[in-house]
Amino acid sequence: MTELHIAVDTGGTFTDIGVRRADGTLAVWKVPSTPDAPDEAVLTGVTGALEREGAEPGQVTRLVHGTTVATNTVLTRTGARVGLLTTRGFRDVLAIAHQARPSLYDNTVHRVPPLVPDELIVDVEERLSADGEALIPLREEALADAAASLAALHLDAVVVSFLNAYVDPRHEQQAVAHLRAAGVAPVVVAATDITSEMREYERTSTAVVNAYVQPKVSSYMGRLATGIEEMGVGSQLWIMQSNGGLLHPRTAATHSARTVLSGLAGGVVGAANWARHLGLDKVVSFDIGGTSTDIALIRGGAPDETTSGEIDSLPLRLPSVDVHTIGAGGGSVAWRDSGGSLRVGPHSAGAEPGPVSYGRGGTDLTVTDAHLVLGRLGTDLLGGHFTLDREAARTRMDEWGAELGLSAEEAAEGILQVIAATMARGIRRVSVERGVDVRSCHLMAFGGAGPLHASDLIHELGMESAVIPPLPGIASAVGMLDAPVRHDFARPVSDFADLPAVFEGLRQRAAEEMRTGFFDTELLVDARYLGQSFELTLPWAGDWDSQRAAFDELHAERYGFSDPEAEMEVIVARLTATVGQPRIPQELVAGVEEGDVGKRDVWIDGAWVPTPVLDRASLAPGRVVEGPAILNQFDTTTYIRPDQQVRVDEHGFLHLRRTR
């Protein structure tokens, strides 16, 4: 019986299903997402993919899922009713935040409100010093009063976050035990159980985000696991987490904040694997979906990571791939601002009603409609299973262009120019702003719309090339298939000499949580110059001199200078534990040389140009196609400008380069 690996990536518009057969060949399937019940699309997609393969659920030996439930819960503010118990005098830690203003010179712009409003915050008399000394003990009588106040609020969850608890969590643990015994809420959790790192605002925010999304994520995991089991799937379900590793659904149900960037991490993992495979040193991972574009920098085959991420301006002190997300996708809506200027995004038409060309009642023009009107995009997508209404898009573009004093073609071209400028800014954000010359980078373009925009972006930014993987529309799903099971552990340190003992303690925690003694570890430290407010994470070097030299080198690379006179301090020890998965080499069916399968008029440089349209699957390795041209495949469309050419390599990747 042939074994199958399946990955399911839930997006804002489509749910992508990638199937890898035992011989390494890949298949793709897509179904519309069901935002109100995302598990329905997952189950429908898996069922449909198996039917197309003529396979049974029992043949699935690996099932991986990237979910947007936690992300959407925060963005739509539909999470749990969360209360906070904190140290007396520090109840405003979430409201004060960093005291940073989103737009310094605009007094009409306000910070995103905290997930816990003031009326759901209770403080209690207790205090630990910065070195863990109990300055004010936590008394049971005070806890009893706090428990009564919290119980009266009818909460779904309570977070306990006390000042300096990252040094010694005993007060938090005492409070959690009391509140659970008192039954103040279904969920009571200590902030140090979610993240035990310094910085009260970030630690409290992370724990609150976790509690806010936990009920929805937990319910979703339960429904999905039940549905998968009832289908008869033979594999353990694995959940993609923000750090690029996999998580058991049981852990995801309690440490739900780890899945906030679940949906986009798979694509970055896949892009990093492909960059290593192709020997590309600097790569910008560029994933365009229906709602957003996710951009990440990959150096030496490894994506940049961060321990200080955020979602909707709320800090998350958890390891994650360092992804910059912008509101620019195929469904991004074109609109005019108060000055009459053309703007595109960040709001999206989504899957329902979708772009005008979807024929589902949408009236707002989108990036997809612009591509269709200009001829870059055909009317039949997903192998003819999804049809776009070009006439409806053209009629609406005519109307909207008239309001701007433009023809339909000029209006559509304007939409694409605006969205290209937005995407280019996002690419500069992860490259130029990190000291990397964008012209030395390759663009790894994927997602349903990535190959449509790659040609414009390497032209705009002068990048080395654009690389398009074999199945770009499901690249995020395919990337998940090779992700390892991964857990991250951290502990504050004050003395470099303590690190070996601290790492040994973290190893023991890893063995307990991962329930196996067979895992690989990476030892890391957070270091900074004394007096700095932020740290750099780098591998543990074992001795002070080597650590100092490595830190100076990394500081110079990141910020352009190092300070040999400044004192260095190491403040956090980190251990990353991974269990790798047996990798099946990706094999592709070689194309057979054929001529053009047709031509289509495409609007290029102010005129309609008959442009060859080719089936990508027919292109044999070594084939070079001169632009302008369009390559069609099941999951995406690739556009090649007149001043570019594309080459197919022996692995089936497209390499798009400028010719002049």
From TrEMBL:
Domain Hydantoinase/oxoprolinase N-terminal: 5-180
BP terms from Gene Ontology: glutathione metabolic process
Domain Acetophenone carboxylase-like C-terminal: 498-658
GO MF terms, alphabetically ordered: 5-oxoprolinase (ATP-hydrolyzing) activity
Species this protein is from: Corynebacterium humireducens NBRC 106098 = DSM 45392
Protein name per UniProt: 5-oxoprolinase (ATP-hydrolyzing)
InterPro entries: ACX-like_C, ATPase_NBD, Hydant_A_N, Hydantoinase_A, Oxoprolinase-like
Signal peptide: none
Superkingdom assignment: Bacteria
One GO cellular component, as annotated: cytosol
Residue span, Hydantoinase A/oxoprolinase domain: 203-488
PANTHER family the UniProt entry points to: 5-OXOPROLINASE RELATED, HYPOTHETICAL 5-OXOPROLINASE (EUROFUNG)-RELATED
